[in-house]
Every structure is written in C-alpha cells, then in structure tokens.
Design goal:
Layout: E1 8-13, H1 28-43, E2 47-52, H2 60-64, H3 70-94, E3 99-103, E4 112-113, H4 116-124, E5 128-132, H5 142-153, E6 157-162, E7 167-168, E8 180-181, E9 183-184, H6 186-191, H7 199-208, E10 212-216, H8 222-227, E11 233-236
Parallel strand pairs: 1-2, 1-6, 2-5, 3-4, 3-5, 6-10, 9-11
Antiparallel strand pairs: 7-8, 10-11
C-alpha cells in the first residue's frame, strides 16, 4: 500500500452531506460511512482532525436575512457544528476508534475547549479530533475555520471534502461547459472567485503556505485515496 502523502491533515466536511438524501438533519448511514472513511484514513498512519459545517441543521446567513442579527445567526450556526461533531464522535467511537470533540466555545459540560496543546495531545495519542464551534467568532465560515485550525496545529494540508470532484470554472451541474482544474495557485483561486471555498480561506491558506485539496466525498474510500496520492481532486497550492 502506498505511503500517505501527508501525516497530519484537517478534513473539512460539508454539513449538508451528513443529511444524506434528506433535506435536513443527520442521516445515520451517511454519518457511519463518513466515520468508516475517517477511521481508514487514520489506519494509514495519518493524524486526522475534522471540521464540519452546520448547514444540515442551521445556516446563520439564511436566518440573518429574515431578521435575526448576523452575529446571532452565525453563533446559532456554530452551535449546529457542535451537534454534528458530537454525532460523528459517537459514530467513530461506536466502531472502536477513540475520538475527541474540541470546541471553540467554553462549554465544559459538553466538550473540552480547543487549544493547540489539547489538539496536539489527542492527535499524538491516535484519536480522531473533531473541531467544533467554527472559529468562535461570527462572520467566518467553517472553510476558514479548517484552514485556521490546520495552521494552528501544524497540519500539512486541508482536505476539502465536497460534492464535486474538484474546482471548476463554473457550477458543473448548471454549466456543462465548465472546466475542471487539476491544479491552481491560491492566488488563482481567489482571483477566479471559485465558489467551492470562500476567499478568506484561500487567502489564509496562501499566507500560511497550506495546500488545499478539493475532492468529492461521494465515493467511499475517497479520503484514503487522496491521502495516498491516488485520488481525483484539485490541488490548490503555491
């Protein structure tokens, strides 16, 4: 088996993906499959941290357009990411692999507070670490959270697991002529305004020299394939 390309990564998962075929909530077979993929990645010898969006439960931007203030809406969205982390932590541990959720918020009855030292400790112990609560601040997406946490914990790459197999010049579901890129620089990704990740995340990745690999999570085993260098995705680096 090929050696993993990276030894410590942050995997960014879409909250919407956890809903499966539903429009809302958590689909248990889907979350169990994601847990299997994460455990398989860890078995390659990779230290795995995970950031999950909250869009399957709550989207702060949408509710703020209906009268709730943006900071309040974003805080509600960050709490939704904690629900997803706890559900995934439970699924991973049911399968016999240790996991730990760390929160950007102080909520001792629910989760330990994120610190770099706590993340380093649990990763070195072989736990899958789930990073909930976003950055702890409004106006920042979980994409930006993934890059920020990766930079903080010394990860070698951010793996953006999404519903398309890379970065396209336009939405391939709406525009059949959309061009898929195998590789982009951070600057090209920002200048192209590609919607797969927000500009703040790309800018922070450029500043911290972190590669981002955008790939589809739809196929089981896709995370492991990316880690072994055999997967199909777009590399944003340099």
């Amino acid at each position: 088996m090929a050696e993993p390309v990276y030894r410590r990564v942050v995997i960014k998962l879409s909250g919407e993906f956890l809903a499966g075929s539903q429009s809302f909530g958590i689909d248990q077979p889907t979350i169990d499959r994601v847990a299997d993929d994460l455990i398989a990645a860890k078995k390659l010898g990779v230290e795995v941290a995970v950031v999950i969006g909250g869009g399957n439960i709550f989207r702060g931007v949408e509710v703020s357009s209906r009268g709730v203030s943006r900071p309040t809406g974003d805080t509600m969205g960050m709490l939704a990411t904690m629900m997803n982390c706890l559900a995934l932590e439970a699924a991973i541990e049911r399968k016999g692999t240790p996991a730990r959720t760390l929160s950007a918020f102080v909520m001792p009855e629910v989760s330990e507070l994120f610190t770099r030292s706590a993340a380093h400790k649990y990763l070195s112990e072989g736990r899958i670490v789930l990073l909930g609560g976003g950055t702890g601040n409004p106006f920042f997406t979980t994409d930006t959270t993934a890059v920020l946490r990766a930079a903080e914990i010394g990860a070698e790459a951010v793996l953006k697991a999404t519903n398309v197999d890379g970065v396209y010049s336009a939405d391939p579901k709406k525009d059949p002529s959309a061009k898929r890129f195998d590789r982009l620089t951070h600057s090209q990704a920002i200048e192209g305004s590609y919607k797969v990740m927000d500009a703040t995340a790309f800018a922070l990745a450029r500043e911290t020299s972190l590669p981002i690999i955008v790939f589809s999570i739809a196929e089981p085993g896709s995370i492991g394939a990316i880690l072994r260098g055999t997967g199909h995705g777009t590399v944003v680096a340099g």
